[in-house]
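Quick start: what a row looks like.
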Amino acid sequence: MALSANPLMKRWQLRNFAAVYLTYFSYYLCRYNMPIAKTDLSRTFHWSAQDIGKVFSALTVCYAVGQFVNGQLGDRFGARRISSLGVLGSVVMNLGVLLLTLLADPASGGDGAILGLLILFWGANGFFQSMGWSPMVRLMAHWFPIDGRGKVMGLFGTSYQFGAAAASLLAIFLAGDFARRLGGDWRMVFLVPSVILGAMGIFFYWAVRDSPAQLGLPTLDEEGDPRAAHEKKIARDNGRSIIQNLRATLGNPYLWLVAGVFFMLDMNRYGFVNWMPAFIDDHAAQGISPLMANLSKMMKICIHPLAGATGALVAGWATDRFFGGRRAPVIVLLLVPLGFFSIWFPHINPANTALVVTVVALVGFCTYGPHILMVGHAAQDFGRKHGSSSAAGFIDCVGYIGASLAGWGAGKMIDAKGYEFTFTVFGLAAMIGAAMAGLIWKVRPRKEVVLRERPHDELTRKSPAGAGTPNA
């Protein structure tokens, strides 16, 4: 991790990293609980895959809108306020779903009212969930320098892979053994995560600061280059208006291309997140004990994000080690095999646990490596320090429009054509994304202070042949 030599700065870097990591980890507890609750919800209220797919799509559509809005707000007001508000809202919405499932009459599930309320609550949860990532990307850009960003953001990216795995494990336990063997209730998948996230939100608000300037510390650029003293003024909060951020974001062609690739990746990613648990349930092995079936399910589902954590670390390291900070080559080299593994997945015998786990691990590795490179590294590279929240929000917004297709649209496709056809579509989306990412193969990030100190024409002359110069 790229830490400062200044002891006070180093202490605050570690404090902010720990708070951001643990809080975003906890965000996922209140998002990935729904796919696990899907089976019990459908059974209780007699809903089809298409019905529950509407719930998934409600979250992803509202998350997409929220990312665009909250990315701008994150640059304007900072992560400390915006991400803390997101925690509060997500907790309230999860508790709303809990009350709805406790009070609703299962016999009324077919009339649409209960489903409509669930869609409303889960959509609102998606909006509040979108207050987490983008503002936190901005906070990380202020506390850690561009040198070594691949490793730092790769490490930060493991927060949501481990969070997704923990969310699934916790939800499987609460809806499985806890509900059936320990006298609990499957609806606790919405209560327990809310308590954990709420506690982490309080810790986050207490622990973080949005930039070194808020503590009177020098900015990272001042530390590394005395010529950049003017950076301290620029580093202060509210240095650029929402309109200015919006123009800079929407006027950046690199961000549009990265967002398009992310659209394809998120269609694939949420195809697995939303429907892999249902696929495993529908193809459960016969003749084994409920406990072993539950353990097998945990292993098959959780290996996806756990292997993804390794993918995030390796991908970030590889961009620094082999490609001079260029993200596109690693994105392409991982998206191509992701497409092949996705197409292969539904053809595997679900009773062959070892093979299923191996393929799902490869899918996770190839998914989350490109994922963090686009929504983390590339957002900071092309959005720059003071527009990184807006850039991350825009990329995530477009990505979650793709994810929304993996909800209702995928559910309808599964009902009509089955899992094999649907996962083939997910695989082709990854391959199309790889082809798009190849268009920026040679583009690399630039240090902000260098751009301010040297004329643009000199930069152009001294840039490596073929290397792009991102515009912020």
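That is the whole record. The two ends are 25 Å apart (CA to CA). DSSP finds 20 helices and no strands in the chain.
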